[in-house]
Amino acid sequence: MTLVARFLRFWWTFIVGDDWRVALGIAVALGLSAVFVKAGVPAWWLVPLGAVLLLADSLRRATRAT
Amino acid sequence: MTSALLFISTFLASGVEFVEALTIVLALGITRGWRSPLVGTAAAALTLGVIVAALGPALTLVPIDVLRLVVGALLLAFGLQWLRKAILRSSGYTALHDEEEAFRLETEQARQASAGRRAGLDWYAFTLAFKGVLLEGLEVAFIVVTFGSSERNIPLAALAGVSALLLVVLAGVALRAPLARVPENTIKFSVGVLLTTFGTFWGAEGTGVSWPGDELALPAIVAFIALSSLALVKLLERRRIRVPAGAPA
Question: Within 10 Å of residue B83's Cβ, how many Cβ atoms?
């Protein structure tokens, strides 16, 4: 593995970790929150709820695989 | 209140990482002598200091909303990773991290490795100590810089990190053994909750959300994340007993 590939791999593991779907889900939740705010809809509930749902889904998949 | 939470989060997160780094340095020092691992540790600490010193002031130039959005997203990613690991361990799906076993393995490997010397240093011990401290410390540096810059209070975050380092080093020097009694998974769980809370708070603020009660929303988010995570532990425990690991779910 080249030095660049190792460097990128390190940052991927460091930030994204074991489940890339969680990282993607965070981006979607924050994006939706911005859209709601722009539309004038209260959105304070969206990110905390999204975080817990993403965690539950990730755990469900992790334990199903064992 | 945010300052207190910021201090506690940074202190606990730093403590867990420093305990892991200490295990590596102790194993190397005991088996191969102290000079090279300590030089490796000092070199890594210096590199981390440069990272914090360079990134900290640079981040204070970024507009606060953009900073909170990016930092919030990263903390959410970090916090959920930590919570996921801690919940899988608490519910018995994966083994608890065993600092004594990690120490035994490191010691065994250090004994078997050949003693190549460069520039008067045992290169194996130097490289391993440098890598171990740098990688564990990078997470600490990241938390110190992001927490500190989001609250515009890097000195407080740095003080929390340094306090954790001092406590772990003093304990390590006193015991000359890995800190096996530290309830690592409980701390990881707590830090996961705190990182997820701050990530949620700042990330949502970065998208333009106004929290009901402003900073008073923080304890409510902590409680929501903590209770949901505890419920997930219970749920998985029950599921593991009903469907043993390895059996089709």
Answer: 29
Helix (H) or strand (E) holding B121: strand B121-122
Are the beta carbons of B137 and B13 closer than 8 angstroms? no
CA nearest B84: which of A46, B93, B150, B4? B93
Nearest to A43 by CA among A52, A56, A34, A55: A34
**Is the per-residue pLDDT at A65 higher than 70?**
no
Q: Which of residues 138-197 of B touch A (CB under 8 A)?
A: 138-139, 196
CA distance B51 to B14: 16
- Triad B166, B170, B173: Cα angle to 5°: 140
Q: How far apart are CA B169 and CA B173, in angstroms?
A: 6
Residue B241 touches chain A, beta carbons under 8 Å:
no
Closest Cα partner for A17 from B44, B22, B74?
B74
Nearest to A33 among B81, B209, B240 (CB): B209
Which residues is B121 bridged to in the sheet?
B118
Helices and strands, counts by H and E, chain A: 3, 0
- Nearest 5°: phi and psi at B67? -60, -45
- Kindly state the helix (H) or strand (E) to which residue B117 belongs, with its residue range: strand B117-118
Residue B48 amino acid letter: L
pTM for this entry: 0.77
Number of neighbours of residue B219 by Cβ within 10 angstroms: 13
> Which helix (H) or strand (E) element contains residue B122?
strand B121-122
Query: What residue ranges do the domains of chain B occupy?
Result: 2-240
Is the per-residue pLDDT at B16 higher than 80? yes
- Residue B223: how many CA atoms within 13 Å on its side-chain side? 5
Which pLDDT tens digit goes with each residue over B171-199?
A: 877 876 666 666 778 888 888 998 999 99
> Distance from A4 to chain B by nearest Cα, in Å?
17
What does the alpha-carbon distance between residue A60 and residue B145 come to, in Å, rounded to a whole number? 33
pLDDT for B248: 44
